[in-house]
Amino acid sequence: MLNAREHAYAFGPEAGSDYRPDDYVALRASRTILVDETHDVFGDGTCVIHAAPGHTPGHQVLLLTLPDQPVLLIGDAYYGTLDRIRRRVPVWNVDHAASFRSMERIERLAAEHGALLLIHHDPAATAAIPATRSRV
User: Fold this and answer.
1) Which of 33, 60, 115, 136 has the largest count of CB atoms under 10 Å?
2) Residue 54 DSSP one-character state
3) Is residue 40 helix, strand or coil?
4) Coil/strand/helix, residue 10
5) Three-class SS state of 26
6) Dist CA 136 CA 72 (whole Å)
7) Do residues 23 and 75 touch, judged by C-beta distance below 8 A?
8) Low-confidence residues in the chain, pLDDT < 70
9) DSSP category for residue 58
10) Under 8 Å CB-to-CB from 106, ≥6 apart: which residues?
C-alpha cells in the first residue's frame, strides 16, 4: 500500500534528488494498492493508515490499536521530541505548510485514541516504550 501522491511523485518528473527510482524500479510492475487520506488495512479499525504529507508528498502514519494501548507510528513526521514540543519542521521537508497541518492531524489522532506517539528517529522516545507482555 502506498499513498497515491507519493507514488505519483516518486515516478513523476518532479521527483527530488533524494528519490532514486532505480532503488524501487520493481514497484512500477508490482501490484500496488494506492491509498489517499485514510485506509483501514484489515477493515476492523486495528490498523489504519492516515495521510500526513509534508516530509514527502505522500507521507503516511499508522495507527495500531493494540490490546494494551494504541500506538501511532509517525515515521519522519517529527524527527525528535523537541521537534514536537517546539513545532519544528526540517528544512528538507518537501512542503512546510503541509507538515504543520500534518502535525495537527497527528496530535488530534493521538489525543482522540489515547495513542502512544512513536517518533522514528528519537532513540530516547523509543527506549521509553514499555515492553509488551507475551500473550502466548
Assistant:
1) 60
2) T
3) strand
4) helix
5) helix
6) 24
7) no
8) 16, 125, 128-136
9) T
10) 52, 61, 72, 74, 77, 78, 117
pLDDT at 23 (0 to 100):
86
pLDDT for residue 123: 79
Looking up cell 534528488 gives 17
Q: How many residues would you count in the chain?
A: 136
Homologous superfamily, domain 35-127: Ribonuclease Z/Hydroxyacylglutathione hydrolase-like (3.60.15.10)
Q: What is the pLDDT of residue 134?
A: 45
Instruction: Give the Cα separation of 129 and 47 in Å (integer).
Output: 19
CA atoms within 13 A on the CB side of 134: 1
What is the pTM (predicted TM-score) of this model?
Answer: 0.86
Tens-place pLDDT, residues 50-80: 999 999 999 999 999 999 899 999 999 998 8
Number of alpha carbons in the 13 Å side-chain half-sphere of residue 113 = 25
